Amino acid sequence: MLRPERMSKVSMAGSRGVMPTVIETIHDLNLVHLSDYDGSWEGFDNGNPIEGADDASEKLVTVRALESTLDLSEEDTAPGTIDDDWEKRLEEIRTRVNDLDDQRSEVREELRQVDEKIDQVAPFAELGIDLDLLSGYDTVDVLVGEGSHDQVEAALESADEIRAYETFTGGDVVAIVAAPSEDAGTDPIDDALVGVEFTRHSVPDTEKSPKAYLDELEARKRELESEIDDIDAEFDQIKGTEGSFLLRVEEELTVEVQRAEAPLQFATTKRAFIAEGWIPADDYDALVSALNDAVGDSVEIEELEQADYEAAHGAAAHGDDGGATDEEAAADEPDEAEPEKPRAATDGGTTKAAAGGQGAVTMDDDPPVILDNLTPAKPFEVMVKMVNQPKYSELDPTLLIFLTYPFAFGFMIGDIGYGILYMLMGYGAWKIFDSDAGKAIGTIGIWAGVFTIIFGYLYDDFFGVHMADVGLGFLPGAGVLSKGLQLGEWALLWIILSILFGIVHLNVGLVMGFVNELSHGLKAAVYERLSWILAMNGLFVWIFSLHLVEQKPGFLVGTGEEAILYQFVGFAGLPEIVGLVGLGAFLVGSVMVGVGEGVAGVFEIPAWAFGHVLSYLRMVAVLLAKGGMAFAVNLLVFGAYDTPEGYTYFNYPGFGMETISGYEYETLEPGFVGLIHAGDGIVAVIAILAAIVVFVLGHVLVLLLGITAAGIQMLRLEYVEFFQKFYEGGGEVYDPFGKERTHSAE
């Protein structure tokens, strides 16, 4: 839904003696989002962790390190209980795993060194010259490396530093033996090879032949790799036998650490404590019942505040912008017989203290937010959270994204074949990813695929091929729409409808912004949002009116041959008087923008009132671009007949079609010969294979570009144009104190 779930702020106060029991009870409930005490009350300090917290934290770190080393997965484990001797068992596992890990590290380090030596000696083994022949000379220099033999010899031949030389080759390795000239420097071969790409190799320090040394190193490498495999097998054995135990211990220690560190969020004295937190309003009675059963009257529980989105906005609307101020309200005390109504709290809720109750908001914080959406819309919450969690005082746009994002995506791609693949990709992501975000993205992909299929059916497109062209034109409703690649009036219609979609989309955002701004007062809402509603709608009411119709684009309004809306739905334009009223609304809204936001707001009018609407034309651009790319791929593959209406895809003879677009095949000439019709004999076979490659790779490219184009462009429209009208974010996620057990039992 658009509004967040109602939250209540509760206070739990009692003696220090019952604090552990209270902590255990609310932890098991997993309902209370604890508030942090800021240390501001006189006589109260933040509590200290319960005894044993440090030891539990250390053990928890140990367990998580073991899980990381074993690459432990929850899918490979089963729930169970923990025996009393779990600490001894944990220490045995830790010792065994650490020893194996140290052993594996040592073997891997030796393996790395062996690989380096193999890389060093392999070129000399390829050269086939004993190593003792490559060093120890006084009158000649020897150099071994890899490079172009021809370039090396050319460089040596032309070098003044070299008096004579000889080269030996083996594969890509070159050995150079050169006698320097009398005036040569200390490194005559290096000087001669300046400008030649040549990688120098150091002579290995061994008395063995390169081949024997290389064989020895490779044998040692196989031994080390076998040792690593044995160690990994031991790790797998430990993982299989102890994995469930480790996860159970981790869960138990996590619970223990959470409970032990909970007092850090409490306000405490030597004898008492106070804890506050937020809880879903409907669960308040469950909290009271659980604490009463656990500690009876030893804890006083009180509902301090109930956050209510409607109450907050309704009360604020009568605040300093047209209603009584706080001072005036205080001066006008209600009669004792008439109880005072709850006033709006600073965080968007209502306080019982303000209503005459005993409670008081002490740990001042905003209510955490639980997004409350219909099941089909829940995956789209991830798209909202990518920007930020909504504040409690803001409307949640998840449902609106669910209604617009897949619809617009499907409109822009509109192809049954692509839609099926998008659904499969989404389902694959949903199956592969374990995280909620990963599954949500997969579900969004499925929804996008569904609407892509729906629009593809209406466009009569299956990988860019019209179903009517392959004998499926009898399907009801197929092809009632066109992407407008060949029929210009359809493209113009999509331009107009994209603008209208943008107007509706932005109006929804502005109305939501108006509602959100009511928390700051009616005046703020009028000047900051209603002004833009008047300006934008007034401008486009005038644009789609008959006022000055001669000066407006012919396809937009009027009754001429180019008037698209008149051709399709018989709409010529709004009456002239309505256009004048719209123009007046635009001027009034612009003045209100100037009053409310100053000169900066006036300069933003072209962007907000006109430019943001035109941004929705990117939907048409993507529609035509992706459709054109699919058309081009199919044109290369199938070719096309040249009909009076333009190119139409070839039909396969196997479908038994005798006509195309109403024309006999015999009366048409190929306007473009595709790959599947190119040549005869072996040429035809090669051409058909090429056609398959072009078809597959071409449509895969269009498929992937569809994700980046349609997906990102609509995401931009949601985040930049739509969200900018109402959304700020920055709310706190509801994170209740507690943990659901999945591996261990109490």
Walk me through the structure:
The longest helix is centred in the first third of the chain and has 52 residues, at 210-261. The protein has 19 helices and 18 strands. It is flat, with a radius of gyration of 38 Å. It is of the alpha+beta class.
Descriptive keywords:
single chain, 746 residues, alpha+beta, 7-stranded antiparallel beta sheet, 4-stranded antiparallel beta sheet, 19 helices, 11% strand
Give the overall form: flat
Instruction: Provide the structure class.
Output: alpha+beta
Number of helices: 19
- In angstroms, what is the radius of gyration? 38 Å
Unreliable stretches (pLDDT < 50, length at least 5) are 314-361, 651-657
Main sheet record: 7 strands, antiparallel
Percent of residues in helices: 40-55%
Alpha-carbon distance between the two ends: 36 Å
Mean pLDDT: 83
Give the total of beta strands: 18
* Beta fraction: 5-15%
At a glance:
The chain has 746 residues and is of the alpha+beta class. The chain is built from 19 helices and 18 strands.
Question: What topology does this entry show?
Answer:
Elements: E1 7-15, H1 19-29, E2 33-34, E3 45-46, H2 53-70, H3 86-127, E4 141-147, H4 149-158, E5 162-170, E6 173-180, H5 188-192, E7 198-201, H6 210-261, E8 267-268, E9 272-280, H7 284-295, E10 299-307, H8 309-316, H9 326-331, E11 349-351, H10 381-385, H11 398-413, H12 416-432, H13 436-459, E12 461-462, E13 465-466, H14 488-517, H15 522-543, H16 564-569, H17 576-614, H18 618-638, E14 639-643, E15 646-649, E16 659-660, E17 663-664, E18 670-673, H19 682-722
Helix pairs in contact: 1-6, 1-7, 2-3, 2-6, 3-6, 11-13, 11-18, 11-19, 12-13, 14-15, 15-17, 18-19
